[in-house]
């Protein structure tokens, strides 16, 4: 597995929302929208590979969230349930390669790990209008009674789709594919411009 | 300006909802009028004594306001101050006035007062039976379009705006435990009882305020004016954070699985154009666990002669105008009723200080409560009688009243004339069952209330109140409270008791089942007795339809157009059915019922599309280099949802010139293309190779690590549906590329086969399309350029064509594939997308001395066509096998396990002679580029219809070859090399060409393999 971040840190890096966030700034007192630079690893693993699942815990310190639509987190990592054999691990910016190397070292049997840190990004959406913005965008019931803190769903978002996770009463993380960045960012800015 | 019908002083209603301190000026048919804040257009026009609001559809008869709500058939207006803000078919009864509002009659071209159709209708009306237009203008059929245009304009329905809609619309998704439809006494009570359990409740009402029929009536609740109860209840609901209140919000559609759409008009009641930053309308898409229909009921008018003269109104509407708007629509009222409830209209009229001429009751007796009130007020009641005919032109002058026999089917005495200017009628109420029908419910007829009520088709829906045929207020409130509690409990909440307001109990006599008042003459000879006002359907028309053999009510409706207007027959359907049933000698339930489809009232296209317009109409997917392309003047092409650079014009260059330049630069120097949109799928697992063997036509068992291979994918039908290069990173790890547009489909295809057919294979797929940006440099100088920027050993003896290496390019970790879609020496540089721009710019910095040239999809198409490389979807169309493409070399029938499509490749049809096969074409005139899609014939002189043997799939001018080149599919083409073919064109010319190999350039592949 390659380290995909250059050693030379002076090389220009453009995160997914780099251009659109400049062109359509999300400036509002009602909500806040920010891109988070994070490392993203997709892990595919069958539930029968218990040794490797244990190995993940030994590296990350968290049990895989096998409960559908759930997530677990500690100070360093978030693991999101995506599908019964699919998990998204979020880690600190540029630590994804080291984490993948460590996981591969400890894990055995059948599994797949893919670094997608450049292919998708996390948007942090918060504020009093955040939930309303999601209601304008997604058919999923985002009321806190149905979408409590820590729950994670892959769902439709306007004409696109994304993964969303509630992190607080008024705060959410949205995992967005890079090529849909402009559309989704602009959609949120538009939806957030009205009560 | 005076408002002669506005009640003032002591007679004014204390519960009126108009604010006389806020006068508002508006215009109707270009004349200014004044009303007050809270007035609808209808109430303001009535206040100003405007009788005629339009002309009827077929006969051009003058028409006035009949109702006070959604059921209004006549007062259908065109609204809007500017072309862009035109709104057709607005109900004057539901639109509030605001300062400067402009509206016009939709019926009555060229003018409402005097019009062509009115004369036609008057002169020929009796000769215009149902089906008149179809019968009369049948021949010659080609002229129907002309007739139809004129008839339509004369009949007049609203028109769409011709300018772009400047307003903004929005959609919002709502989820509720209990959605309560209708905010009258039943809806409010149900909402209160559901909300008090903690359930998430939405209460929606189409009017501009809550209260429903309580706003129109003078009932007391808990001993106080009903408005007090409304205010307290709405306050309680508004402060509960589990409740959403929506006004001006019509629940228009009830769809499967308790999904309902609510059309909220946010600014329509106040503005012609929504203020900056506000949205005009919002569509709520509601998913509710339980739905309570508290939709109320529409009063049914009685059908009698000339019942369409302005001044003939629903009894309840008259009460509404008096109590809610302080408007009394005339001076002398004659009331005809078959029930006690409508007596209240006479009392309201009386209390406004104007004259009630008499109450004509079709029954022999009425309930004690109302009789006492009438006696106290000195109002005459005439029992067992009916108004048989109204008289007047643009307003009523008098009415003919005659005694009825006990069946109500015949007159039993002589006529007496009553002078009056307003006739209010009531034959009872029709529960508004519309929503309950939308998902397949069939209303049930209840003889006791003479009306249809919702059936219990939907177990998660409860109907209550007048919408369920319950009329005494005290019963409505009690039932609605139970419905609210029941619905909440069905959602898992715990309602232990119900609460509701107390209303007076009245002594009510039964109503009489009567719909159509008999006349002295047979229906066909009597003055017109209208059933459907909007579409001019008469009782005689319905009887004629039955006589002509239409027995099903659905056929009668279609023949007569009953219920086909924008009001969907809210007033007319039951009367029409009753008349048809009587003529057929059947009961109403035997005759059938008519059901309703969404929407309950018309919805604007804007509200349906919401924000999915302009920049949000479709997703635009961008690569990580998109901004660079924009800044460097690219023209873009849509590839699936991707925006890809099409070509990069310099200065005033045409597309043709730009593409020629880009092609030559790549053939002679170095070109660069952003190939990031290629689908990329990461495949890991010990069975990855075996899986590839099964989904591709060729063999993958022996592909060494670090090598790439081109593969074709077929469906089970043996037809090619995608292609691409797949590379071996390690024994258990491959990277597959797909076409840009086919990526999602291929990914799903792999998952489906893995999950459903071969779950035993240990392999996982992950989309990495967006993770890797792909920068492809191509041309004789590509290696020189890359050599300046990478630590990878580019020695062509070791880094060969179809090899893969990992290393650093321009300081960024990269996978470099030596693969080529141009036929030149090419390197596809893949880097993590966040660093794509840095590497791209570095390539330009170092490539300047080689005149590095960015190119787009058009040049890519030309370069690959010069090499005969196919584009799936352009040179294939889902009917081409690998053999048809002369790509049998990419099929390995000997693989141990079968591959998808293998069996189909041996079908009789796929192995037959003369299948269309992919070949090259060289036009005889080297400068002529044959249009793509040109049909190909072998004999240019054959008479039409000519025998077509194929068509051109790709066709370009090749700058490097200085001639036109084309690819085509031709029957048996591979055996016809060197033959002449012909392409007849639409302009009559014929292009001649010769069949050749599709590899036009460097057939030995020396350039891409160059050492």
From TrEMBL, chain A:
Signal peptide: none annotated. Coiled coil: none annotated. Transmembrane segments: none annotated. InterPro entries: SoxG, TrmE/GcvT-like. This is Sarcosine oxidase subunit gamma. It comes from Cocleimonas flava.
UniProtKB/TrEMBL annotation, chain B:
InterPro entries: 2Fe-2S-bd_N (IPR042204), BFD-like_2Fe2S-bd_dom_sf (IPR041854), FAD/NAD-bd_sf (IPR036188), FAD/NAD-binding_dom (IPR023753), GcvT/YgfZ/DmdA (IPR028896), GcvT/YgfZ_C (IPR029043), GcvT_C (IPR013977), GCVT_N (IPR006222). Pfam families: Fer2_4, GCV_T, GCV_T_C, Pyr_redox_2, SO_alpha_A3. Residues 916-1002 form the Aminomethyltransferase C-terminal domain. It comes from the Bacteria. Coiled coil: none annotated. Residues 527-609 form the SoxA A3 domain. Residues 177-436 form the FAD/NAD(P)-binding domain. Residues 625-894 form the GCVT N-terminal domain. Keywords: Aminotransferase, Oxidoreductase, Transferase. Gene3D superfamilies: 2Fe-2S iron-sulphur cluster binding domain, sarcosine oxidase, alpha subunit, N-terminal domain, BFD-like [2Fe-2S]-binding domain, FAD/NAD(P)-binding domain, Probable tRNA modification gtpase trme, domain 1. GO terms for biological process: tetrahydrofolate metabolic process. PANTHER family: AMINOMETHYLTRANSFERASE, AMINOMETHYLTRANSFERASE, MITOCHONDRIAL. This is Sarcosine oxidase subunit alpha. It comes from Cocleimonas flava.
